[in-house]
What does this fold into?
Amino acid sequence: MSLADDLAAFLGPGRVKTDPLERHVYARDGGLRTGPVEVIVHPRTTAEVVEIVRTARNHGSPVVARGAGTGLASGAVPTGPAVLVVLTRMDEIHEVDEASRTAWVGPGLINLELSQHIAPLGLHYAPDPSSQSICTIGGNVATNAGGPHCLADGTTVAHVLGIELVTVDGEVVMLGGAAPDPIGLDLRGVVVGSEGTVGVVTRVLVRLTEDAPATRTLLLAFGDTADAAATVSDTVAAGVIPAALEMMDRVMVGLIENWIHAGFPTDAAGVLLAELAGHPAAVEAEAEMLSNIAKANGALSARLAADADEAARWWKGRKGAFGAVAQRAPDYYLHDTVVPRSRLVDILGRVHEIAERHDLEVMNVFHAGDGNLHPLMPFDAAEPGTLERVQAAADEIVTASVEAGGTLSGEHGIGLEKRDLMSLVFSPVDLDAQARLREAFDPVGLFNPDKVLPAGSRCFDYGRPAPAQ
Ligand SMILES: Cc1cc2nc3c(=O)[nH]c(=O)nc-3n(C[C@H](O)[C@H](O)[C@H](O)COP(=O)(O)OP(=O)(O)OC[C@H]3O[C@@H](n4cnc5c(N)ncnc54)[C@H](O)[C@@H]3O)c2cc1C
It folds into this structure.
């Protein structure tokens, strides 16, 4: 029997797709690359994922897990014919434990739906990627997703306590769990951020966060982006860690305003959106400190949101930024690098210089508080040669960020997009260690082959350890 027939034998024909239109739709994620998909399956249970993995392995076909396909590093795009396991139907909230502030959820659950579900309990799920209304918890775990509110609370890895994983042998293992200090190796930490290369995540135990008793949202406008960047580093240096601290430049603000009418000042060169959360007295004091730091750095204005509606409008503007770019061009390339906060000004200058040299427009909207840059280049892929220019500029921006003491990615992952740049930050020994760890989980290269680690990463033969004397 064919692979598709074998899969349909237990999933039924309705949840196994091979027609050209479906394969075309699933050949791409939020990134720029496409790849061949052999068959698409939609499991509903862990037991079905187990059968899928065993069947794919029997047929010698790789397995690529996929959530909502919003990833920007082409992590869910197969590099050769593969079984694409779409987890979106495993979207249950299995159990919420209000007392211990945890929840067991399916990997296909949409991030925002979890926070909406637990809102009546005064709780939320802290990692809030700007894509949170469409991306899945499983995809967030696999990419170690961040978001505007991860500055104070940490990225996904700080909020995942336990992971149910289907292994290469079709076994179900539980990594981590509810115990506050699990013993043994932290394999849960290996899976978070592994981009589907060590197994398929089928259930996740997440930490829930209590809503802050008070929040204040501040909008700071600057005549120069350097002043905005200086405010970011001065704020953290002063010991104030906002719940979120986001930056947008003039071009980005103009596009957002034209579309969402968030109420941002369009005459400013740079805008900071900050949220302070905590005890009411502390929040008031920190808001005042932040305003003073901004004014000392020449801010044109510092405005507190009048009420929750105004704050929500500002956040809607920030989170809708990428959609606003569609007004400019049919395609965009969104970069994701990290630089030390103290180098933000230099790097923003370099980004503009690189884009100009490649005859490309660039705009910025990013998680300034943790130095996570998102230069965004709108372009039209139908114009011959443009994609190549965009790619060349992208590689230069990544290199400049690394040279400034930063790294390749703050949250979107490596996938295919940055795989071949890994040697900018890792030595052959580092890459080999990662490849050996991956091999321990997946010795046959079943899961998401060709992703994350460049070819040749497994470069040393250590041989057998010498017997103890
Ligand atoms: C408009 C927009 C805004 C964004 N903003 C942010 C942001 O603020 N922060 C941020 O971090 N990202 C952001 N992203 C990127 C993206 O949304 C995140 O990377 C998200 O975590 C991907 O989730 P997904 O469900 O779409 O995963 P997919 O794109 O489907 O998959 C991503 C990776 O995870 C693997 N994977 C998915 N599910 C599983 C599973 N169950 N088991 C094992 N591996 C799995 C895939 O193989 C792939 O390697 C944004 C994207 C867009 C389009």
The two ends are 55 Å apart (CA to CA). The pocket of flavin-adenine dinucleotide is lined by residues 29-30, 64-72, 75-76, 87, 107, 129-131, 135-136, 138-140, 142-143, 145-147, 195-196, 200-201, 322, 411-412, 415, 448 (CB under 6 Å). The mean pLDDT is 94.
